[in-house]
Amino acid sequence: MTKHLRQELDNLKKEIFGIASMVENAINKALLAVVDRRQELADEVIREDDDIDGREVQIEEECLKVLALHQPVAVDLRFIVTVLKVNNDLERMGDLAVNIAERAAFLSAQPQLEATVDLPAMADRVRAMVRDSLDALTNMDTRLAWKVIAMDDEIDDTNRKMFNVFQELMCADRANIERSVQLLSVSRHLERIADLATNISEDVIYMVEGELVRHRTEDLQKKWRA
Amino acid sequence: MTKHLRQELDNLKKEIFGIASMVENAINKALLAVVDRRQELADEVIREDDDIDGREVQIEEECLKVLALHQPVAVDLRFIVTVLKVNNDLERMGDLAVNIAERAAFLSAQPQLEATVDLPAMADRVRAMVRDSLDALTNMDTRLAWKVIAMDDEIDDTNRKMFNVFQELMCADRANIERSVQLLSVSRHLERIADLATNISEDVIYMVEGELVRHRTEDLQKKWRA
């Protein structure tokens, strides 16, 4: 590999960590906005999403440039394709943070819904998954990536339980309906962020081990449940 | 371009149309399962998703092989990156069809919810968007791609209206709550399929015109709404 290509790849790595930390920050703020009912944090997340979008476009253009100029093969090619995909997943996570922030903006103007719903605990777990998937990427740590994949099932279960809890709340008192629908959205957006952290983890494993783990893990899970 | 590369690219094109028609079929069946309450169609969609997953993995491996062996540049490179992205979007559409089918399986076992909700009309529009985005890809038709992008705003509006309609239904009678929550999920999954059709259309424009339209259209929409 030429010294020039090495520099370009190092640069791409820095860029992807840069957008990752912007997205992580957006998710954290959006969740704080919901849990602590802080409208001003929700506004920040919505306002700052343009920066994430701009960064994604820039990284994709950079990847195409490196592909065209250096025509990398083998592990370098795989790295760039992984960056393209992770970049896309991160931008989608940013959009979900905006969706959560929009719910937070609505909810913080309403009286708090008294409930036994443990949304903060779910948020903590999803935040840990995002963190771990990005650490797995930084350190090429497949053990950590597998841990994230294992956690995803748990989050799916929690999301399903949320459905039941909110359904009961709505049945108990129609005054709960509007807020329950909004909080259900938050739970669902969290579940999708967890899915994207799982995608990133699968891409890390693919990059390191050269196997397409996607769907293979789904098959394993299906067998496990059957 | 070598004759061999030309053949590989033609082959990729065929592959992507193949998976596209499988996904379109899954979406159509899932929607029919909801609208006509046909459990057996829902079961088919769920069963056949493994084939779509397998096809996605195969196409991605094919793309990597062509990139490594032929080191294409310019328009050919852009074509392969577009195939990688559209392939990913199509697989996600397939997953959403499964989600809709799972709701259909639940709903078809319940009495029909009498309502003024026009889910079939929304389903028709989303189906048209999927169809048009794939036609835009087949014919490199940017005019059609822009049409899809314009329709996406309409679907977002419809989804927001669905929220209100179902909220009222739930408030009117708590017996409506469970089915309303499920139907709201269908509406939301439809909206996400429309988003993915929009992504594909943006990629088509990018491939033809070499511009990254993503986010640029979002900006235009934001200005329009402001």
Percent of sequence in beta strands of chain A = under 5%
- Could you report the average pLDDT of chain A, rounded to the nearest whole number? 88
Q: Oligomerization state of this entry? A: homodimer
Number of helices of chain A: 7
Spell out the helices and strands of chain A N to C. HHHHHHH
Describe the protein's topology.
The structure is a homodimer of 226-residue chains.
Chain A: H1 3-35, H2 39-70, H3 74-107, H4 119-139, H5 142-172, H6 177-209, H7 216-225
Helix pairs in contact in A: 1-2, 1-3, 1-4, 2-3, 3-6, 4-5, 4-6, 5-6
Summarize the structure.
With 226 residues, chain A is mostly helical.
What can you see in these coordinates?
The structure is a homodimer of 226-residue chains. With 226 residues, chain A is mainly α. Chain A is built from 7 helices and no strands. Chain A has helices at 3-35, 39-70, 74-107, 119-139, 142-172, 177-209, 216-225. The mean pLDDT of chain A is 88. The A-B interface holds A 50, 53-54, 56-57, 60-61, 64, 67-68, 71, 73-74, 77-78, 81, 84-85, 88, 163, 166-167, 170-171, 174, 177-178, 181, 184, 188, 212, 214-215, 218-219 and B 50, 53-54, 56-57, 60-61, 64, 67-68, 71, 73-74, 77-78, 81, 84-85, 88, 163, 166-167, 170-171, 174, 177-178, 181, 184, 188, 212, 214-215, 218-219.
